[in-house]
Amino acid sequence: MLADLDEAPPGAVIILHACAHNPTGIDPTQEQWTELANLLEKKKLFPLFDSAYQGFASGDPDRDAWAVRYFVQRGFELFTCQSFAKNFGLYCERAGNLTVVQKHGATKAAVHSQMTLLIRGQYSNPPAYGARIVSKVLNTPELRKEWMQSIQTMSSRIREMRKALRDKLVALGTPGNWDHIVNQIGMFSYTGLNESQVRVLINDFHIYLLRTGRINMCGLNTGNIEYVAKAIHAAVTGAGATASCPCDNKL
Ligand SMILES: *[C@@H]1O[C@H](CO)[C@@H](O)[C@H](O)[C@H]1NC(C)=O
Ligand SMILES: *[C@@H]1O[C@H](CO)[C@@H](O)[C@H](O)[C@H]1NC(C)=O
């Protein structure tokens, strides 16, 4: 990543995922963020943070905002696009927030007028209801507390499923190392399964995932994890169609 960014021309906008990287589930460590900041500073690159999962990664919105705050504290000018689609369950309401961090008050009017032009040309008026829900929840102490508990529940459930899947694959003796499933964070996991193994999961077991091997951890629950682990085992060991399939399809 550093080598690639080192090739970028000065002024290039670099999109960074604030937390719970999609699609890999691999977030930089704080030391790695520091190195990224050093490089962006040196090369005069412009960070744009895409923050779509705040609170969903660690369960703590402050902790998940660490990278953004760190860059601001280092004196970067930047944009942060926050989405509330996932952490507020508002997928269809287009609820988000753009934060523009500038060093000089003097450029404020210029940025504002550019934003106004873009907005006017693109959507003119944003949908209001989702944003009102977010605002109401975050500005009402009891609701805010309930929301904090909800994202804690959601993120710890995902972490439990990661652990359960890793443990089951280890117990089954599935060839390979599965620690990455627990080391990755957020909704997604790069399983490391290749395209032919993915095809086995889809065709023989009706488990749907991307060709890259990316799975959405939210789809796992205590009722299906055993089935998924056995299917992955079958896909990796080439046992494919012979493994028992509770969905009773003709393999
Ligand atoms: C939206 O961004 C502004 C700054 O641009 C900030 O003051 C406000 O708290 C943000 N709202 C939310 C819900 O994060
Ligand atoms: C996937 O991995 C298996 C096991 O290593 C291998 O036999 C197969 O050829 C691979 N398929 C692709 C598309 O790389």
Automatic annotation (TrEMBL):
Q: Please name the GO terms that the record assigns under molecular function.
A: L-aspartate:2-oxoglutarate aminotransferase activity; pyridoxal phosphate binding
Coiled-coil ranges (or none): none
Q: Which family does it belong to?
A: Belongs to the class-I pyridoxal-phosphate-dependent aminotransferase family.
Q: Which domain of life is it from?
A: Eukaryota
What EC number(s) does this enzyme carry? 2.6.1.1
Q: Which residues form the Aminotransferase class I/classII large domain?
A: 2-232
The identity of this protein, by name, is: aspartate transaminase
Keywords assigned by UniProt, alphabetized: Aminotransferase, Pyridoxal phosphate, Transferase
Q: Give the GO cellular component terms, alphabetically.
A: cytosol
How is this protein organized at the quaternary level? Homodimer.
- Which InterPro entries is this protein grouped with? Aminotransferase_I/II_large, Asp_trans, PyrdxlP-dep_Trfase, PyrdxlP-dep_Trfase_major, PyrdxlP-dep_Trfase_small
Q: Which PANTHER family match?
A: ASPARTATE AMINOTRANSFERASE, GLUTAMATE OXALOACETATE TRANSAMINASE 1, ISOFORM B
Q: Which cofactor does it need?
A: pyridoxal 5'-phosphate
One record GO biological process: aspartate biosynthetic process
> Does the keyword field hold Ribosomal protein?
no
